[in-house]
Structures are given as structure tokens and as C-alpha cells.
Specification:
Number of strands: 11
Number of helices: 8
Order of helices and strands: HEEEHHEHEHEEHEHEEEH
CATH topology of the largest domain: Rossmann fold
Helix content: 10-25%
Shape: globular
Oligomer: single chain
Number of domains: 2
Strand content: 15-25%
Largest sheet: 8 strands, mixed
CATH architecture of the largest domain: 3-Layer(aba) Sandwich
Structural class: alpha/beta
Length: 343
């Protein structure tokens, strides 16, 4: 967003110290790498794009790569989060930090993959496939996490390389016009990809209206999408969502079954899941486009194909398991979610 300088200025020198606190199997061998991708003349990228990669269990082939797009210190810190790294280790995946890669025009990134950032990410994986002696990284399937403008980017990546994408998480997603969530129209080939869209109920930047409109438009096309709201939370606070994100990803990985082999991803069977529903309450907060921002006042879950016998409710989408549905319901019933200190 042009009203917010979301690029990360925090140092990443602490990576080795932070990772030392992570609990992984005693026999596991953790390897870390860094690579740079030089922009092409026609890329809308100002300088080299930098990537870090951690393979917590390097003795195994990598089944998939969880990519965190750095967008401020909070989201960048997910790369060092012990719960995230433990999750990646358990799934025998790799964890990548795509550091801020600014456009030629402004401090912000260009969120259109075809303008350079998409190619840079895939090139980085190709380079790392050689450096790490894990050739499967060159074709590995990807899980993408993006905050704010990077939320718009990861949504667009589903159309850029749909065959490579296991799932995406768009957290408080938005971007300045004309690159917001309202301008993304996914092709049919991208509709198999599960997406978790998270909006915040006091977000003066991204709001709730445009993220929900994006969700609703593609949900009507039978895409396996999940919608969640952090009640009365501003444009921040991803740490609150980490547990529910990892729970959702556990179910999605079971459904999609990525492996180190060059094989297609499985499709989601929604009939094995649940459906979520919400009732909303408008707040006094307005987003960047002066639209009202809302919170969840009531929530319901039902087995697939059923609907609560109440009126004035909104669809909140696909909940991949009963366990996740119950966690989502408990989360949405909180009238106000915490704000991380120092924000």
C-alpha cells in the first residue's frame, strides 16, 4: 500500500541464533543457504532479489517449500518462528524467506509475478537445487504466505504457476489501485488451489470488504477457499494466526499430498470437510477506499452441504476437517483478538 512502507528493514543476522532454539529430531541435519537473483533488463525490479532457505531435515528429499514473503518485521519473523520451523521439519519440507525486492518506481514491490518477482522466485529455487544437492527444489511444490501487498502477489501466483502451488495464505491482503484484490480474476486452472484469506476487523489499510469480495467471487466458482477475521485487530498481528494457519496447512497437505517426485498435486475433496458461516457487525473503521470495516459477531460450522437455519449470514467457506472447523469456530467467537506488544 502506498500509505504504508511495508518493506523490511530489520536485520536477519540473528537467524542462526534464533534457529538454535528450534526443537527438531536429534538425528536431523539442518542446512541453511542464501542465494541472489539478478534482475533482467525488462524486470520491474530495482536490484538483486535475495532468498534464504532452511532445510530442517536435510537427510530427506524436500516434499514442498513454504515460502514467506518478507513484508515488515512481523511477517519476516515467521521464517525464524520455532513453531513454523518445527512444522516444516515434521512435513520434511523446506522453508524459504523471500526478502523484500523493491520495484524500480517505488520502495514497494511490484506484485505482478510476470514483472519479475515470479521469475526471480523460480530462478532462486533452481539455483538452490544445485547449491543444496537437493535437485527436487527445481520442481518442488510451493506454499506461499503473503501479507498486505504480498497477499495480492501470492494470489496472483496461483495463476502464474498453478501446477506448482499447493496452497496460499493471504493475510490482510491488498495493494494500491489498480493492483488490489478486486482486480484479480483467477483462471479456471487456478481454482483447484486452496486459499486461506485472513482479514482484520480494524484494518484501516486493507479492510475486510475487498478481501471478502475476492473470497466470495472465487468461492462461487467452487474454489476451496477459507475466510477468517481477526476481530478488532488493525493492519498487523500475524502471530495470532500462526496456530490456525498451521492447522489449516496440515489438512491441506494431507489432501494435496505433495512429494519430492515430479507428479501432479491431488485435488481437494470438499465433501470430507465442513462449511463455515458468519454474521458480521459494522465498525466505525474505514479502509483506504473509505469502505466500512466489519467484525464477526456470530459464527457457525456445519458438515459439508448443510447450512444453519438462521438468516443474514455470510459464507466463510471450506473448513477442511472437523478439528479445523472447531478451531476456526473458537477463533471467530472471540470478540476481540490480541494485539502483539510493541505494534
Amino acid at each position: 500500500m502506498k500509505r504504508r512502507r511495508d518493506s523490511a528493514f530489520a536485520s536477519i543476522i540473528v537467524a542462526a541464533l534464533y534457529l538454535a532454539t528450534i526443537t527438531i529430531p536429534c538425528s536431523a541435519r539442518t542446512l541453511q543457504y542464501r542465494t541472489y537473483v539478478v534482475p533482467r533488463p525488462d524486470d520491474n525490479v530495482q536490484g538483486n532479489c535475495e532468498y534464504q532457505l532452511t532445510i530442517p531435515r536435510a537427510e530427506y528429499p524436500v516434499s514442498a517449500v513454504l515460502v514467506v514473503f518478507e513484508r515488515g518485521w512481523q511477517f519476516g519473523n515467521l521464517y525464524f518462528d520455532p513453531d513454523v520451523t518445527a512444522f516444516v521439519a515434521k512435513q520434511r519440507m523446506a522453508l524459504m524467506l523471500a526478502q523484500h525486492c523493491r520495484s524500480k518506481e517505488r520502495e514497494d514491490m511490484d506484485v505482478v509475478p510476470e514483472h519479475g518477482v515470479g521469475r526471480a522466485l523460480l530462478t532462486a529455487l533452481n539455483q538452490l537445487a544445485k547449491n543444496t544437492h537437493h535437485p527436487e527444489l527445481a520442481w518442488s511444490k510451493l506454499i506461499l504466505l503473503g501479507f498486505s501487498g504480498a497477499g495480492s502477489l501470492v494470489a496472483r501466483m496461483t495463476a502464474y504457476v498453478p501446477e506448482r502451488i499447493v496452497a496460499v495464505i493471504e493475510y490482510a491482503p491488498s495493494q494500491y489501485d489498480p493492483l488490489g484484490m478486486d482486480t484479480i480474476e483467477l483462471p479456471d486452472k487456478a481454482l483447484d488451489i486452496p486459499q486461506l484469506i485472513i482479514a482484520n476487523g480494524a484494518d484501516k489499510i486493507s479492510g475486510t470488504g475487498r478481501p471478502y469480495e475476492y473470497f466470495q467471487r472465487h468461492r462461487k466458482r467452487n474454489a476451496p477457499l477459507t475466510f477468517a477475521v481477526q476481530n478488532r485487530v488493525p493492519h498487523c498481528c500475524v502471530a495470532n494466526m500462526t496456530p490456525i494457519v498451521l492447522l489449516w496447512l496440515t489438512d491441506v497437505l494431507r489432501e494435496r499430498a505433495p512429494t519430492a517426485a515430479q507428479k501432479s498435486l491431488a485435488r481437494v475433496d470438499e465433501s470430507k470437510g465442513w462449511d463455515g458461516f458468519i454474521r458480521i457487525q459494522m465498525s466505525a473503521v474505514r479502509d483506504s477506499w473509505k469502505d466500512p470495516v466489519w467484525n464477526v459477531s456470530e459464527a457457525w460450522i456445519e458438515p459439508y452441504g448443510k447450512r444453519p437455519s438462521v438468516s443474514d449470514i455470510k459464507d466463510a467457506g471450506w473448513l477442511p476437517s472437523k478439528r479445523f472447523a472447531e478451531s476456526w469456530l473458537q477463533f471467530e467467537k472471540q470478540p476481540e483478538h490480541p494485539i502483539t506488544p510493541l505494534e
